[in-house]
Amino acid sequence: MRFMRRAALALTGAVLAGGLAIVTSVPASAATGQRTTAATSSSTRAGTASPAATSCPTEGQRFKYPDYATVYLVGPNHVVYYFPDASDYSGLWSSYSGIVTYSASVLNSCLTGQVHPMYAPDLVKVTGNPAVYIWDSYFGYYRWITSQSVFDKYGFSSSKIKTYDLVYPVGTSNYWD
Question: What average pLDDT does range 62-69 have in this prediction?
Answer without folding.
Answer: 95
